[in-house]
Structure to design on (807 residues):
């Protein structure tokens, strides 16, 4: 075995082999894959091999689409062998209104993916799958290019192609330990020798947590047993002119497909899911299966017999019961590991065969520093040690048991919560706050009222719509207060603090103490890596605030780039909380709690300024900004002070109309102000140029990514961020990735939207072709309730001159 390698991949399942192949396609051939057994060991070999295009996550949809192309076109072309992909098509069967709305949303998202997807009638479904009963179906989605494949038939050719390109494979060789060397390289110790590697990838599947422990990396994965069975032959199956499509049914919570001349049926039981190996994996486990447990899945098999009468007429030939990995949100773990450089995760896939094409995008990430896709939903750093064992088990079971359940934007599941809470959590809950979770952090979404006590699952306006309208009205006409504790917060100090941040920031840093700048951090290739609000306390002291979802990633980005600078970076996210006090009466309410000589007039405390002030007896870091677009201050302080200051402000402000408001109202108001947001309009596959953030970028300076941005600004952009104002009253908003049409063609996709309660119109951001981003351009958006008409505006729909902010 070789003694050095540029990249060592630990694990020879579908994902590891895919990555090995794609690294060689990117030009990196000094790649060694180490597998403790045979390739496809673990869970790959026994997978049912389903490859669906139906997916509510745009990034995963692109990965699935590419994966099918890889299996059905690229591998046959490069090997000269016929395709082994069964292009049977697939059906997704729903029974409720919310499922129909969800399916419409999925169809809209598919327009920018490239896969064919459409509704078909019960009669049409019967034509493509004559052995199934669709009488009770409300909606049926058809994707004709879906199918399934034998895992071995694609893993082995990919491995051979990678070897022909220069990669090496060491089988039946367990990795015993991994050590980080002072040089930054990794010492990978195996049963057959030691390899020194520049990069290591954890593609260990079921063993990924054990691999992670070798270098102190937390891998939030749980194994669950999943069963499918294969029946004896049925004469009606043998008579079919073409292979029956893979059918997924929400009532039976099962997938049903043809296997030879029989049926293959796999239920995802909606209760009683069974985790496995909770105390860790046994290294001797290899290509193992569990005894069949038909009792556990019998209720779902009985439903399948009603849907497919022929299933009840044949015997069971084989029961496959194997381990499948699940993460807390059932998206797999991809990308850099927290706290390390050049150690990568590629694990946690519950349907890894369908997602094998992720190897292409991780290869791009490793080689070029970013990918052509937005990887935020898969980035392994979205979890941290707060995702402990009990949380992972609870959420993995939930994900498994809801595999074929409906999707809805207000589906607010309670499993495993709360994990991360602000000091305000209990009190706001008592006051009617409906919390939602972001990266484990509980955030108030909206507040119940005497009239609105809850909401039903819906893609249209729910009952909460009226309550959110009241919250927005209070902010507009009096004052609102919101919990901002769930914000990532960092302190950067040191003699080189200004030079360090100046190198990261695309915008000029504040020139004076007590001033604030909004900026983006870019990669060398121009992708947006972070959005930060930077407050200058002194030239050697700055406070940064960004999205809670990128807390670990943002900290790591700064750590990776501080070499050569005398700076310290402190993450104070958990130790500081915060409040937003905003609205026309915000100054009046705040002034009651300040010393008489504390000047917070517009002249004494202008917009985009900051300083320490004493609120009652507390020292508070106050920032004259408001994401809601009204007069206001963000008030940040140690967590133990937040509750007291909140109650004090509310005590004096209630008589002036002070009211709690949550994230839905905040999103509504930021959309009205044309404020873009990280994770929506700002993502890694685009730059500030496409995001139309030119006024926040000073390209006369040198900063990371500036040369790439200059090139983009001088060339032709493929897409730009547009601001959509809707011209109809259809009660359905945009949630991101819905198709946008202009002049009869698909021009792009939305990044999100909301109803603007202060202006009485729906709003959205979208990335569209530059020729369509003109004032007044008419567009159509496909939503969960059908087509909606909108036009493009170039200025904010609410207070375009910022007069309400600067009073």
């Amino acid at each position: 075995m070789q003694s050095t390698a540029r990249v060592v991949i630990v694990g020879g399942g579908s994902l590891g082999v895919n990555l090995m192949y794609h690294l060689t396609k990117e030009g990196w051939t000094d790649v060694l894959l180490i597998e403790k057994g045979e390739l496809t060991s673990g869970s790959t070999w026994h997978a049912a091999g389903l490859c669906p295009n139906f997916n509510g996550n745009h990034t995963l949809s692109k990965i699935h689409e590419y994966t099918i192309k890889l299996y059905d076109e690229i591998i046959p072309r490069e090997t000269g062998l016929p395709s082994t992909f069964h292009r049977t098509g697939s059906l997704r069967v729903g029974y409720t209104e919310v499922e129909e709305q969800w399916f419409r949303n999925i169809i809209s998202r598919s327009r920018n993916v490239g896969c064919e997807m459409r509704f078909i009638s019960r009669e049409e479904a019967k034509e493509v799958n004559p052995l199934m009963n669709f009488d009770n179906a409300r909606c049926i989605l058809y994707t004709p290019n879906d199918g399934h494949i034998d895992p071995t038939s694609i893993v082995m050719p990919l491995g051979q192609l990678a070897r022909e390109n220069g990669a090496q494979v060491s089988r039946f060789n367990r990795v015993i330990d991994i050590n980080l060397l002072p040089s930054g390289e990794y010492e990978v110790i195996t049963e057959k020798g030691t390899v020194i590697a520049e990069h290591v990838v954890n593609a260990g599947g079921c063993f990924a947590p054990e691999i992670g422990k070798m270098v102190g990396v937390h891998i939030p994965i749980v194994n669950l047993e999943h069963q499918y069975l294969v029946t004896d032959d049925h004469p009606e199956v043998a008579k079919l002119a073409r292979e029956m499509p893979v059918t997924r049914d929400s009532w039976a919570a099962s997938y049903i497909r043809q296997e030879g001349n029989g049926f293959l049926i796999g239920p995802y039981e909606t209760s009683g899911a069974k985790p496995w190996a909770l105390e860790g994996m046994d290294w001797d486990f290899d290509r193992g299966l569990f005894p069949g447990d038909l009792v556990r899945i019998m209720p779902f098999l009985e439903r399948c017999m009603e849907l497919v009468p022929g299933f009840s007429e044949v015997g069971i030939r084989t029961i496959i019961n194997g381990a499948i990995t699940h993460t807390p949100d059932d998206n797999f773990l991809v990308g850099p590991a927290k706290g390390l450089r050049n150690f990568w995760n590629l694990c946690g896939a519950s349907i890894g065969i369908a997602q094998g094409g992720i190897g292409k995008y991780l290869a791009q990430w490793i080689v070029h520093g970013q990918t052509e896709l937005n990887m935020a939903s898969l980035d392994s750093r979205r979890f941290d040690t707060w995702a402990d064992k009990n949380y992972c088990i609870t959420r993995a079971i939930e994900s498994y048991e809801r595999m074929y359940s409906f999707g809805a934007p207000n589906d607010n599941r309670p499993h495993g919560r709360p994990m991360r809470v602000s000091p305000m959590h209990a009190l706001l809950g008592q006051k009617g706050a409906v919390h939602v979770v972001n990266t484990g952090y509980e955030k108030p979404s909206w507040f119940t009222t005497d009239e609105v006590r809850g909401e039903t699952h819906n893609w249209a306006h729910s009952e909460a719509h009226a309550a959110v309208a009241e919250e927005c009205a209070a902010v507009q006409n009096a004052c609102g207060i919101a919990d901002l504790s769930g914000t990532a917060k960092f302190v950067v100090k040191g003699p080189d603090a200004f030079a360090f941040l100046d190198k990261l920031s695309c915008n000029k840093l504040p020139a004076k103490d007590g001033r604030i700048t909004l900026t983006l951090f870019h990669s060398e290739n121009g992708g947006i890596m972070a959005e930060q609000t930077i407050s200058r306390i002194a030239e050697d002291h700055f406070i940064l605030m960004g999205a809670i979802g990128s807390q670990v990633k943002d900290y790591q980005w700064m750590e990776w780039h501080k070499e050569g600078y005398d700076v310290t970076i402190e993450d104070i996210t958990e130790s500081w909380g915060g409040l937003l006090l905003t609205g026309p009466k915000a100054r009046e309410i705040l002034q009651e709690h300040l010393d008489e000589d504390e000047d917070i007039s517009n002249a004494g405390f202008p917009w985009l300024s900051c300083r320490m002030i004493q609120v009652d007896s507390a020292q508070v870091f106050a920032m004259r900004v408001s994401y809601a677009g009204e007069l206001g201050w963000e008030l940040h302080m140690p967590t133990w002070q937040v509750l007291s200051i909140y109650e004090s402000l509310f005590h004096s402000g209630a008589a002036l109309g002070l009211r709690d408001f949550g994230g839905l109202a905040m999103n509504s108001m930021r959309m009205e102000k044309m404020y873009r947001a990280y994770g929506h309009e700002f993502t890694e596959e685009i730059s500030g140029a496409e995001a139309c953030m030119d006024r926040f970028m000073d390209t006369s300076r040198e900063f990371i990514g500036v040369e790439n941005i200059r090139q983009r600004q001088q060339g032709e952009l493929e897409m730009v961020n547009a601001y959509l104002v809707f011209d109809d009253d259809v009660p359905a908003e945009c949630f991101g990735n819905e198709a946008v049409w202009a002049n009869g063609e698909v021009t792009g996709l939305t990044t999100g939207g909301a109803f603007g309660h202060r202006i009485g119109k729906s709003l959205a951001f979208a990335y569209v072709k530059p020729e369509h981003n003109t004032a007044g351009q008419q567009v159509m958006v496909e939503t969960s309730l059908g087509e909606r008409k909108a036009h493009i505006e170039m200025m904010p729909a609410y207070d375009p001159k910022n007069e309400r902010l600067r009073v």
Observations:
- The two ends are 71 Å apart (CA to CA).
- The chain has a mean pLDDT of 96.
- The chain has 18 helices and 38 strands.
- The CA atoms of residues 15 and 656 lie 59 Å apart.
